[in-house]
Every structure is written in structure tokens, then in C-alpha cells.
């Protein structure tokens, strides 16, 4: 008697369902614990749900550039402002143009709202200018009155070596300061009295009369230097109106005045022509120097910017305080004035000295995203309430609850006992989605808005569809006459392929939508993509292992009428059995035709 032919092990044979369930359980516990440890137990809400601030910026025409306000520059400005705001962790900020010369910035309510508003308001161009003179912010004392000493708050250094120094107040005389200004304004190196020519000397000797010495009139450069020096002496940077007017309308190639804060006190500067523009900065960020244990700002320049920066720092390194400093000027205000001790080449530099974490990160953000092609003024600032968004959210949640109830009713009526597995799987997916959204709010600043809520509601149908595909494959195997346990394993490979293809299409659509759209629509695309990925995770690590375990129970394996897998109700065919004869006429054991 011949031995029966060994059947081939079916594809998708039983694995280890306990291991998969343990993995997803650990993930759920870790995510839930992360929410409580970070104290972020609820998702951050967008401006349409939580309210916030709406800022209207108006573009200003630059002197000599009447055509600067155009579609290209406005689009560039929108992108830079959006990166600046989101660089502070205020995600879901909406930045868009309105009309020809307005930009609307909507900032959701949150911990960085005030800080973001302050930086959005400073949207002018960024320049690196050499310092020609520095003094306290108050106007100079009348002649004969002792002048106050310079602020001792200190200035950072542009290398990262040494302690922060404090530039002394200008102790040189007005003549000396005027000479520095004249040189910066490209004045002649010397203003000595010109000597008479040889012919004039001979003529003077013949006439035996001394030649008169002409008194030169002040040059235009000298007059400009004197005027700038007088304005500098009279400037009061403690006065808000004078601060706003200081250096207003100055071109990059002109010397100018500027105000800024040193610690808690105001200072004032005379600055030379801009040596480097903000557009020459490729990247900048505030980081902690692990060796010195202090916060610094690292800068990386473009190729052209590196050459300009090396040139200006090489020139400044040979000078004395305060002429060896360069001022970083944003929106006409000095935000930092580091000193230079050597030429900084290679396209990389760092600023150190007296930074806190917040001030270092703020300066890095300004350097990275501060160079706008246009100047803007704050046209209006309004507070957005969440009343309308709250009503829409309530209506959306009601609609989602109704849809979910209808899905559950359908599962109970059509799939009966299998509905339990589907409902628990939906619950697991909801826990993962909620916890991840809450943690993303803390981690990357993700904010939940109305379109994102719609994406989560649509995901209910996507997840339920995956369960239905798998359940129908199992039913098809039972209709062909197989028992439940082989049917569960044989149905999985075909169901798995269908689920993966379906979810890949959904994820691809979400990715394309996220890339090609802006604003709130990206919230919908992001949530749809996230829930699609979680659908694959839940089906593979929860639904399939639970189905494998349920197939071992008597309720499901016996085909109970309420299990949803009753062979009679499904119209299953009786198992086909046949005999196989050997050459000698003996009969072997019956073999299941489906397993042959």
C-alpha cells in the first residue's frame, strides 16, 4: 500500500499571533505613556478650531524700486514668512496673498503665538553692516557736561572664542569720529592745503609777494559725514518714534543710523554700507556648544556670501573697538553686533557670547528666514474666535458619529460575530491615531483643523473596507468547502495583496495632495495619509492575529449561526472526496480534493 501523498503547506500558514498582538500592545502603551509624560493629552487645534491671531501685512515700495511689488516677490515673501513662523514651532500657520500688495498671516493660538507675531512684524530686509560708532541710546549731553559711560551689557563675538566683550563708548573727539565717517563714506585720505605750482612760485618770487593759502570748502562727503554725526548725537533711541525713524529709507550702499537693545538698555550705532545681505545666508541656527556649555549661533553662507563675509571680516579684524564689529540689522534694528578678531573664511561662522537658548534660536531664525525681497508694515491685527469653527466641528463630529453607527449596524447585521473583531480593530486604530496626533502637536507642531478632522472621518471607511476584504476572502474559502482554520490562513495572502494595493493608492493620493496644495488642505492630506498607514499596521498586527485566535474557539470554528461564518448560511459546498488507486489495485486513504 502506497503512502499517501503529502499535501503542500498552504501559503500564509499560521504564524505566531501572540507576538504580533504583543507588538501592537506595546506600541499603544508607549504612545499613551508618551502623551502623559509630555503632558500633551489632547491634539493641538488649528486656528479655525482654537482661534488665534490674524495679521495683515502691506508691502511698501522701496525708494528707486517702484516695480518691486510684483507677483514673484510677493510669492517669495509668502514662502519666507511661512518658514519663519513654522520655524518657531507654530505649525498650521496660514500665509497667503490678498490682492496685489497684502499678505494675510493666520497664527493658531498656542504657546509661541506672541513670539511668532513679533517676528512676523519684523519683515524687512536683513543686512550685515560694519560698525563705525556706538553710544548709549540717549542723546549726547550738551558740550561741557560729562558724558555717560557705555553700556556694559557686552557684545557677542563672531568666532566662538573668548569671553563676550563690551565695546567702549566713543572716546575719540568729534574730529576723529568725523574722519572715520569720512573714510567710510569714501572721503579723500587727507585734506591738507594744496601747494602752489612751480610757475605760481616763480611768479610770486618775481612780485616779491607771498602767495595766499586757499581755504578749501567742505566736500560733499565731509558735509554728509558731519550731518550724520550731528544726527547721531541727537538721536534718542529710548524714544519709540525716533527709533522707528532712525535709518528709515537708507539704501544698502549708504551709511546709516540704527537703534538696538543691549540687554535691557537701548544703544545707537552709526553703520557703514552693507557688506553682506540676508540673501547671502544659506542657513543659521542656535545650538549648544557642548565643549564650552554655552549657546551659540552657527551661520552658513552661500558661495557669493562667503566671499563677501570673508572680505568684510578681514577688513574689520585690523581695526579697534567698535570699528571691528559688524551689526546684524533686521527691519532697521540692530539685533546683534559681534566683534571680529580675524578674517572668517570658508563660508561658515559662529556667533557666541551671552546668548540664552531663546535668544540664540531667535537670532538663528531671523538669519535663516529674515531676508525678504520687500519691506512690509503691519496693516491690521485681529483676534480670531473659535466660535464658528467650534460649531462646524460639532456638526462634523455628529456626522462622523452617525456614519460610524451606520457602519457598526451594517457589520452586526451582515457579519454578526465577525463584527466584534471589526469594532475592536476600529477602536485600536482610533487609539493609535489620537495618541500620534497628540504627540505630533508637541513634536512637530501639528495642529488639527477642520479638514484634518474630515480626513480622520474618511479613514473610518478605509479601515472598515480592509476588514470587509479579509472577511469576504474567508467566506469564499468556507463556501468552497474548507473548515475555518485553513480558510483563515488561505484567505490572508489574497486579502493582503488587495489591502496593500488599495492602501497604496489612498496613500499616494494623500501624498500628491499634500505636495501640490497649501494651507488647510494639507491638514486633510496629512491625516488621510497617516490613517492609511495605520490601517495597514492594524490589519497586519491586530485584525489578522485576532482572527487566527478566534478561529480556534468553538463559537467560530463550529460555524455558529451568530458567528457570521455558518457554512449552511453561506451556501458551502460539501467537501469533495475521491479515492486514488495504485498500480496493484489497492485503495489509499481518502484525500480532500482541495488539498490534492
Commentary on this structure:
This protein is α+β, with helices and mostly antiparallel strands and 596 residues long. The protein has 17 helices and 17 strands. It has helices at residues 17-37, 47-50, 71-87, 113-121, 174-184, 198-207, 220-234, 240-245, 303-316, 357-369, 387-415, 418-443, 450-479, 484-516, 520-550, 554-557, 567-570, and strands at 44-45, 52-60, 94-98, 102-108, 126-136, 256-262, 265-271, 276-277, 281-289, 294-301, 326-330, 333-336, 348-352, 375-384, 447-448, 577-578, 591-592. Strands 5-7-6-12-11 form a 5-stranded mixed beta barrel, surrounded by 4 helices. Helix 1 (17-37) runs antiparallel to helix 15 (520-550), helix 5 crosses helix 7 and helix 11 (387-415) runs antiparallel to helix 12. The protein starts with 16 loop residues before the first helix and ends with a strand.
**Helix percentage range:** 40-55%
For the largest sheet, list the strands in their spatial order: 5-7-6-12-11
Instruction: Report the sheet-strand fraction.
Output: 15-25%
**Overall mean pLDDT:** 74
Structural class by sheet pairing and helices:
alpha+beta
Unreliable runs, pLDDT <50, ≥5 residues?
1-13, 143-155, 160-174, 187-205, 576-596
Specify Rg, calculated over alpha carbons: 38 Å
Q: Outline, from the CA principal axes?
A: elongated
N-to-C CA distance: 18 Å
Give the number of helices: 17
Largest sheet: 5 strands, mixed, barrel
According to DSSP, the number of beta strands is 17
Amino acid at each position: 500500500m502506497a503512502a499517501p501523498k503529502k499535501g503542500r503547506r498552504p501559503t500564509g500558514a499560521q504564524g505566531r499571533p501572540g507576538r504580533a498582538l504583543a507588538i501592537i500592545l506595546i506600541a499603544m502603551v508607549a504612545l499613551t505613556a508618551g502623551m502623559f509624560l509630555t503632558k500633551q493629552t489632547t491634539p493641538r487645534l488649528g486656528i479655525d478650531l482654537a482661534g488665534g491671531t490674524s495679521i495683515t501685512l502691506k508691502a511698501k515700495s522701496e525708494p528707486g524700486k517702484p516695480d518691486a511689488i510684483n507677483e514673484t516677490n510677493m510669492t517669495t515673501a509668502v514662502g519666507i514668512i511661512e518658514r519663519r513662523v513654522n520655524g518657531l514651532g507654530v505649525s498650521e500657520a496660514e500665509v497667503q496673498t490678498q490682492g496685489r500688495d497684502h499678505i494675510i498671516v493666520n497664527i493658531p493660538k498656542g504657546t509661541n503665538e506672541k513670539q511668532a507675531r513679533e517676528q512676523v512684524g519684523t519683515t524687512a530686509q536683513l543686512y550685515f553692516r560694519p560698525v563705525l560708532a556706538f553710544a548709549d541710546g540717549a542723546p549726547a549731553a550738551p558740550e561741557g557736561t560729562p558724558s555717560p559711560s557705555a553700556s556694559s551689557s557686552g557684545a557677542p563675538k563672531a568666532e566662538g572664542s573668548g569671553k563676550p566683550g563690551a565695546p567702549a563708548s566713543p572716546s575719540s573727539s568729534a574730529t576723529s569720529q568725523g574722519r572715520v565717517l569720512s573714510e567710510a563714506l569714501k572721503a579723500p585720505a587727507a585734506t591738507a592745503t594744496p601747494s602752489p605750482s612751480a610757475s605760481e612760485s616763480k611768479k610770486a618770487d618775481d612780485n616779491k609777494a607771498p602767495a595766499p593759502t586757499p581755504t578749501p570748502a567742505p566736500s560733499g562727503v565731509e558735509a554728509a559725514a558731519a550731518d550724520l554725526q550731528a544726527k547721531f548725537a541727537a538721536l534718542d533711541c529710548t524714544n519709540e518714534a525716533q527709533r522707528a525713524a532712525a535709518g528709515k529709507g537708507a539704501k544698502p550702499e549708504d551709511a546709516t543710523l540704527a537703534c538696538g537693545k543691549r540687554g535691557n538698555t537701548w544703544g545707537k550705532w552709526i553703520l557703514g554700507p552693507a557688506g553682506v545681505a540676508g540673501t547671502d545666508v544659506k542657513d543659521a541656527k542656535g545650538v549648544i556648544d557642548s565643549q564650552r556649555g554655552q549657546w551659540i549661533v552657527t551661520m552658513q553662507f552661500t558661495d557669493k556670501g562667503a566671499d563677501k563675509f570673508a572680505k568684510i571680516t578681514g577688513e574689520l579684524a585690523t581695526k579697534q573697538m567698535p570699528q571691528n564689529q559688524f551689526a546684524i540689522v533686521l527691519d532697521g534694528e540692530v539685533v546683534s553686533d559681534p566683534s571680529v578678531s580675524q578674517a572668517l573664511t570658508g563660508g561658515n561662522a559662529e556667533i557666541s557670547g551671552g546668548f540664552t537658548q531663546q535668544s540664540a534660536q531667535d537670532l538663528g531664525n531671523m538669519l535663516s528666514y529674515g531676508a525678504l525681497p520687500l519691506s512690509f508694515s503691519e496693516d491690521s491685527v485681529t483676534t480670531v474666535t473659535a466660535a464658528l469653527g467650534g460649531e462646524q466641528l460639532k456638526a462634523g463630529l455628529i456626522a462622523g458619529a452617525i456614519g460610524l453607527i451606520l457602519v457598526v449596524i451594517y457589520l452586526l447585521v451582515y457579519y454578526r460575530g465577525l463584527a466584534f473583531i471589526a469594532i475592536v480593530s476600529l477602536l485600536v486604530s482610533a487609539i493609535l491615531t489620537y495618541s500620534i496626533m497628540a504627540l505630533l502637536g508637541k513634536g512637530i507642531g501639528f495642529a488639527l483643523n477642520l479638514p484634518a478632522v474630515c480626513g480622520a472621518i474618511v479613514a473610518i471607511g478605509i479601515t472598515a473596507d480592509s476588514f470587509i476584504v479579509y472577511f469576504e476572502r474567508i467566506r469564499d474559502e468556507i463556501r468552497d468547502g474548507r473548515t475555518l482554520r485553513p480558510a483563515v490562513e488561505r484567505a490572508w495572502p489574497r486579502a493582503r495583496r488587495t489591502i496593500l494595493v488599495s492602501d497604496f493608492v489612498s496613500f499616494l493620493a494623500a501624498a500628491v495632495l499634500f505636495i501640490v496644495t497649501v494651507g488647510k488642505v494639507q491638514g486633510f492630506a496629512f491625516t488621510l495619509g497617516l490613517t492609511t498607514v495605520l490601517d495597514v499596521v492594524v490589519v497586519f498586527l491586530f485584525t489578522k492575529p485576532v482572527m487566527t485566535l478566534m478561529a480556534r474557539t468553538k463559537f467560530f470554528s463550529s460555524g455558529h449561526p451568530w458567528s457570521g461564518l455558518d457554512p449552511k448560511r453561506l451556501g458551502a459546498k460539501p467537501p469533495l472526496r475521491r479515492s486514488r488507486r495504485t498500480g496493484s489495485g489497492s485503495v489509499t486513504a481518502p484525500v480532500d480534493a482541495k488539498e490534492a
